[in-house]
Amino acid sequence: MIYHEDKPSGTAFPIIVILIAMVAIVGSLALSSGHPTSARVWMPVTSAGT
After folding, report:
1. pLDDT tier for residue 47 given thresholds of 50, 70 and 90
2. What confidence score (pLDDT) does residue 9 get?
3. What is the reported pLDDT for 44?
4. Closest to 15 (Cα-Cα) out of 23, 27, 7
5. Which residues, other chains included, contact 30 with Cβ-Cβ below 8 Å and sequence gap of 6+?
6. Where does the chain cross the membrane (predicted)?
7. Rounded CA separation 9/5 (Å)
């Protein structure tokens, strides 16, 4: 009689990858939500008469 051995399902690897991806997403959001820098636009001053 042949007995089948229980093989590990291998679910640990996808869970670890998903957790690493979630940490990376949360970390990038936390870094990008810091102090917003205001955009500075330089516009030359021109007189209305010329």
Report:
1. low
2. 66
3. 83
4. 23
5. none
6. 12-31
7. 12
Q: Retrieve residue 28's tokens.
A: 């990038």
1-30 pLDDT, tens digit each: 577 777 666 778 889 999 999 999 999 888
Q: Which tokens is 35 given?
A: 């102090």
Concatenating the DSSP letter of every residue in 6-47 gives PPP---HHHHHHHHHHHHHHHHHHHHHTSPPPPP--------
Which tokens sit at 13? Answer: 């690897």
CA distance 25 to 32: 11
